[in-house]
Amino acid sequence: MEENHYLAWQNVIHLMDKKDIEKKKILDFGCNQGGFLRQLYDHIPYKNAYGIDLAKEAIEIAKQRAKMYPITYAVGSNPAVFDCLFDTVISTSVLYLIEDLPEHFRLIGHVLREGGVYYTSFSDQTKNPSATFMKEKIDRYGATKMQIKSLNEVVDGLVAQGFSVELIKEQQQPVYEVTSYKEFYLSVDDYLFSCDHSYLIKARK
After folding, report:
1. Closest CA to 148 of 140, 156, 139
2. Beta strands 25-29 and 86-91, pairing class
3. Taking the CA atoms of the chain, what radius of gyration do you get in angstroms?
4. Pairing relation of β-strands 198-204 and 112-123?
């Protein structure tokens, strides 16, 4: 499973500012089995990291795989459970599963240090012709339902919580692998539309 995310995670790591990671206290919100935090540490060593996810089985796997990495994991959706403040919070492919974005952004702001950064990946599918098809697929096989939110909703929600927001184009490569586009899209054009509307959002408190 984690192997399928390696390239996407590598891209996110490349787009983030190294100064926001190196020797910092990091939170991965929606960490699943913990692969991103391990990959991040291998490329940019942080001071320590924490991962939280609703899936108990995934967290158990994350704990087993953490080994000598400076990572602590917990089951849940409220990062306040760690009782500490973070320099940087990261969530990859998580926002589209969160129904109450204002509450989520409030929780993130609550655990971020002043001047801290929230990096989150997001793709606006509201105008994608394949949005309904994609949602049906994800809702059928996923444990959490897909929420179709707009980029405006995400940015406005962050700004309302006092964040300053920057958008970084997530897909910047000259070549696109489209062999398996039918897994979530009705056409290649719809897949490319999704790529063109995908961002790594950098929100500073």
Report:
1. 139
2. parallel
3. 16
4. antiparallel
Q: What is the distance between the alpha carbons of residues 193 and 4, in angstroms, rounded to a whole number?
A: 21
Alpha helices in 4-123 (DSSP H): 6-15, 35-43, 56-66, 101-111
Which string of DSSP letters, residue by residue, matches 7-27? HHHHHHHHHS-GGGTTT-EEE
State which H helix or E strand residue 74 sits in: strand 71-75
pLDDT digits (tens, 9 = 90+) for 1-37: 556 678 889 999 999 999 999 999 999 999 999 999 9
pTM of the shown model:
0.94
User: Under a CB-based contact definition with an 8 Å cutoff, are residues 124 and 170 in contact?
Assistant: no
Nearest Cα neighbor of 36 from 48, 55, 51 is: 51
∠ at Cα 85 (108, 99), nearest 5°? 15
